[in-house]
Amino acid sequence: MKKTSHETNETMEDKAILVSLITNNLRLSDEEAAYSLHELISLAETAGVTVLDTMSQNKESPDTKWFVGKGKAEELKAKIGELGATTAIFDQELSGAQVRNLEAFLDVKIIDRTQLILDIFAQRARTREGILQVELAQLSYLLPRLSGQGKNLSRLGGGIGTRGPGETKLETDRRHIRDRISELKRQLQEVKRHRTLHRERRKKTGIFQVALVGYTNAGKSTLLKQLTHADVYVENQLFATLDPTSRTMELPSGKEIVLTDTVGFIQNLPHDLIAAFRATLEEVCEADLILHVVDSSAEMRQVQMKVVDQVLAELGAHQERLTLFNKLDLCDPAEVELLSTEGDFLKISAYVAADLDKLKFAVQEKLMGDNKTFRIPAEKGDVISLVYRVGDVLENGLDGDDMLFKVRVNNKEYEKHGYMLAKYDESTIRDKGELVDHEV
């Protein structure tokens, strides 16, 4: 008898028990351990899994065979039978041997945190580049876990709902997988080359690039949408957007910049994923300014901020940053007062127009320097041309044989060429009490 589509969906639905092991070397507080497990629940629900129950265990070190202790594994097996679970999801990364042993003992699909995140990314990828990056990360994760899988091979690689690289790939040998990884790297290298060309063109035109970074669900896409009126997907869920989006934003001065939304970070972001997305994340490294978006309403925002700092350090992104404590509309006044006041920061809500204006002025101030006035002999065409390169000319006029320019200076350009303009800078000359010598 043929099953109806409803019955098929019911059968395929993943029902999971989540398991967390806290070991001495992790040095997590009870609060951090509880938060990590809560985050795993959110990840599972984002992947479309029904969470039936959770289990946790404190142990000196992971069991080499079962990951958790044998007694906890037996307890988990009993709970699986009692609740009718089809999947066990672990909050830490498992070795291939541990996955095989647990699958043989529990007779359900075994997923670890890394594979769960990779699966969510597989669901979210829409562009060709995103799909390539996710497949590379999945295959890099799978390769060391291939040997001796037998009947468990397709189960390991399938992920939630058997999505992923696909069973046809998983049934091939190591050499085939390695060949595919090499091909994906080659294609992504081509993507990187194109990105580099685009960046060089932007630099030649003098367009500033600003990157939005932050923990997943901190409100980056909402900010991009509000600041640029971009038609981007916004949803209150983890990794709602995966593929980076760039839009132009107009500063109060009228100058346009490029604002780029990047993929959200999370605790224990898989290294294979960071490696695969390096071409995309290089946009952060090349940005003139990084806007670190923080969910002010998150209880563990300090942990989230630390995770973002660690990932940026791993990427080698050390540019100037402005921290944006977002979602003030979800905080009470007492919580707002407790927000960190270290470094450069703004407290905003993406839905308050006055806050967005304040942010635009702050970005402009970061990218553009002070206003300066230059007095340049009219015949000095090369120097006058340089003035237009180092900033935005706000006013210009003739005073006798000299041209006067009021300029909002571009900090980066002025660092390169400012020494050539120093003798024409009226404020510098006045401070020194010198007479203007217009001859070079």
TrEMBL record:
Cell compartment(s), UniProt? Cytoplasm
Which Pfam family, any one, appears in the UniProt record? GTP-bdg_M
- Assigned keywords, A-Z: Coiled coil, Cytoplasm, GTP-binding, Magnesium, Metal-binding, Nucleotide-binding
Coiled coil regions in record: 167-201
GO MF term list:
GTP binding; GTPase activity; metal ion binding; ribosome binding
Q: Which PROSITE patterns match?
A: G_HFLX
Per UniProt, subunit arrangement is: Monomer. Associates with the 50S ribosomal subunit.
The protein's job, in short, is: GTPase that associates with the 50S ribosomal subunit and may have a role during protein synthesis or ribosome biogenesis.
Q: What is this protein called?
A: GTPase HflX
